[in-house]
Design a protein that fits this description.
signal-anchor; 2 domains; Kdo transferase activity; 17 helices; 15% strand; Rossmann fold; 421 residues; transmembrane; Glycos_transf_N_sf
Length: 421
């Protein structure tokens, strides 16, 4: 009964979901493309395949976590056909950038019984790997009924999410029973899934795959070349900022400029729809800037560089002397700091880091990250780091130690999946 009520609610909400797609398509037209795929209308795949793996990764962060896992698995299963679904066009773009035509991409079907059934009939996967924690009842039940093995990988369940899921236990218990295995990030995540009724034998701590991030040597070289082109000036990056953080970034940079007039802000908003707001904030503050879309690097006359493009965050981390990681001074849960750590740039964050709490805890314990509460504190930390090479190196070394100590999740996850498949 709970599943039927859930499905009925989704049918009622579908027109509003489509309106939201159309609305988001005003800024990013890709949201209005391939809509039929979201209802399961994908090409029919050959049923005589030697095996077909379906990996679902919601957006950019999940895609980046999935890529090393997919590459490692494909290296030992060369005959395997891999299909990756995302929810967002930005996730699709990141997948294309990293894996190109090595895999097939589609958008995830909405969790409507007909859409899910249509997708499974056409794709016919043997396994489904869901990155992190995307629990879609109709999808998981349908996979179970078709004997598709389902795994939640790099799975996390924050206390807030656990409390929310507990309210829907009547719906979720049979859904989670359909999952073949859950590779949890840490013991607290494992206990949370067990608390939702998952068989303890089906949940194993395998670590966080995001620690296994490896920087392409070509990317590192490109970052060094770009840094040389920008000259010997202090550079800081405001990465993955959300609405509400524009004013903080502007105020912090103005304070930095008071002490370091040649400082450059590299601003990378989290979503394309934030590009215009960031540009407007720079205009209103009277800061001179150039946009990445102008295909020209900033000169000594520019005080900021607005990165209004996708897929270049790792490159931009590589040119910075310090990084503020956004989504942390508003209620967005923060963003992954390990990309900055891998590119050897000191990390500054706000206090709202619920989605990456364990990672930040490990970094802070070693002195590899610094937390600030507002623009004044951000400016102070930036000035301290930009003027202090020894402090920068100490934070970089500490973060590298955290990365090294926590690597190995890819191998542990693949071993766990093989044992439960």
């Amino acid at each position: 009964m709970a599943l039927k009520l859930y499905s009925l609610l989704l049918y009622v909400l579908t027109p509003w979901v489509l309106l939201r797609l159309y609305w988001r398509g005003r800024v990013n037209p890709a949201y209005r493309q391939r809509i039929a795929e979201r209802f399961g209308y994908v090409p029919r795949y050959d049923s005589a395949s030697h095996g077909r793996l379906w990996v679902h990764a919601v957006s950019v962060g999940e895609v980046m976590a999935a890529v090393p896992l997919i590459r490692a698995h494909m290296a030992s299963h060369s005959e395997l056909e891999v299909i990756v679904t995302t929810t967002t066009p930005t996730g699709a773009a990141e997948l294309e950038r990293q894996l190109g035509d090595e895999v097939q991409h589609h958008y995830l079907p909405y969790d409507l019984p007909g859409a899910v059934r249509r997708f499974l009939e056409r794709v016919q996967p043997d396994q489904l790997w869901v990155m992190e924690t995307e629990i879609w009842p109709n999808l998981l039940i349908a996979c179970y009924q078709r004997e598709v093995r389902v795994f939640l990988l790099n799975a996390r369940l924050s206390p807030r999410s656990f409390r929310r899921y507990c309210r829907f236990s009547a719906l979720l218990r049979p859904v989670l029973a359909a999952v073949s295995g859950i590779a949890a990030r840490d013991e607290s995540d494992r206990q949370a899934f067990i608390g939702l009724g998952v068989d303890p034998a089906a949940v194993k701590v395998t670590g966080n795959i995001k620690f296994d991030l490896a920087i392409d040597p070509n990317l590192r070289e490109a970052a060094l070349e770009l840094r040389d082109q920008l000259g010997a000036r202090p550079i800081w990056i405001a990465a993955s900022t959300h609405g509400g953080e524009e004013a903080v970034v502007i105020a912090a940079h103005q304070a930095v400029l008071m002490e370091m007039p040649d400082a450059l802000l590299v601003w990378v908003p989290r979503h394309p729809e934030r590009f215009e707001d960031a540009a407007q904030s720079l205009d209103e503050a009277g800061l001179s800037y150039v946009s990445r879309s102008a295909h020209a690097n900033p000169t000594s006359e520019h005080q900021a560089w607005l990165i209004d493009s996708m897929g270049e965050l790792l490159l931009m981390y590589g040119i910075a002397d310090a990084a503020f990681i956004g989504g942390s001074l508003v209620s967005a849960g923060g963003h992954n700091p390990l990309e900055a750590a891998a590119q050897q740039v000191p990390i500054i964050t706000g206090p709202d880091i619920a989605d990456f709490e364990s990672i930040y805890a490990a970094l802070e314990a070693r002195g590899g990250a610094k937390k600030v509460a507002d623009s004044e504190a951000l400016a102070g930390s930036l000035l301290w780091l930009l003027a202090n090479q020894v402090a920068r190196l100490e934070m970089i070394t500490a973060a590298k130690e955290v990365l090294k100590a926590n690597r190995g999740a890819v191998d542990r996850i693949l071993s766990f999946v093989a044992s439960r498949a």
